[in-house]
Design goal:
Elements: H1 2-7, H2 11-35, H3 39-55, H4 57-61, H5 65-98, H6 109-131, H7 135-146, H8 151-158, H9 162-180
Helix pairs in contact: 2-3, 2-5, 3-5, 7-9, 8-9
Keywords: DNA-binding, Sigma factor, Transcription, Transcription regulation
Organism: Dysosmobacter segnis
Family: Belongs to the sigma-70 factor family. ECF subfamily.
Length: about 200
């Protein structure tokens, strides 16, 4: 693979990764095929996995063969799962953009006006709710649910442990649900430097 030549400068490391790839190539493709819908996606998954393995070469060089094989299996599986989630998100957005509403109930001008008014009302409610969250809560929820960043990525951004991120997310979700149900937050004021 050309990736070895571009990512790894050390000749011994490059030879090691080439050997790991050759020994596990069929296994990697077999696992990727379980998650991929076509051969191009399968190749992308394997390529992304190899790229991740190259970045962790110091770690995997010290592993015995059985552990190395398991490491490769988990790396491919995790990469494939993340790839599938990403593809699902892309497909969902494409469907939303290309949705055919030509036969929907909103064809009538009155229905369209009602729909616009309904959406404006929901937007106003959501904006009020959003403004009651702290900046930190807003950023955390935005990164998790809009940008779909992983717990590990969030832990790096917020410089805390994954468990801490999970707790922060849990608190922010509970607070949002309370606000949606109209329970309020005991007149908590929104602060720009608020902590979760």
């Amino acid at each position: 693979m050309l990736i070895f030549a571009t990512m790894i400068n050390d000749v011994d490391d490059r030879a090691f990764m080439q050997e790991v790839y050759q020994q596990n190539e069929r296994l990697m493709y077999a696992i990727a095929l379980k998650y991929a819908s076509n051969t191009q996606d399968c190749e992308d998954i394997v390529h992304d996995t190899v790229e991740k393995l190259c970045k962790n070469i110091a770690k995997i060089k010290g592993l015995p063969n059985s552990a190395l094989r398991a490491y490769v299996v988990y790396a491919v599986r995790n990469t494939a799962i993340n790839f599938r989630k990403h593809q699902s998100t892309i497909n969902r957005h494409i469907q939303q953009l290309s949705g055919d509403d030509s036969n929907s109930e909103y064809d009538q001008p009155e229905s369209i006006i009602e729909r616009i008014e309904d959406l404006q009302e929901k937007r106003t409610s959501l904006t009020k709710l959003w403004m009651q969250l702290t900046d930190a809560e807003q950023e955390l929820l935005y990164r998790k649910y809009v940008l779909e960043q992983t717990t590990e990525e969030l832990a790096g951004i917020f410089q805390c442990s994954r468990d801490s991120i999970r707790m922060r997310l849990s608190r922010a979700r509970r607070k949002s649900l309370r606000l949606m149900k109209g329970e309020g937050t005991n007149d908590e004021t929104r602060t720009t430097a608020g902590k979760l």
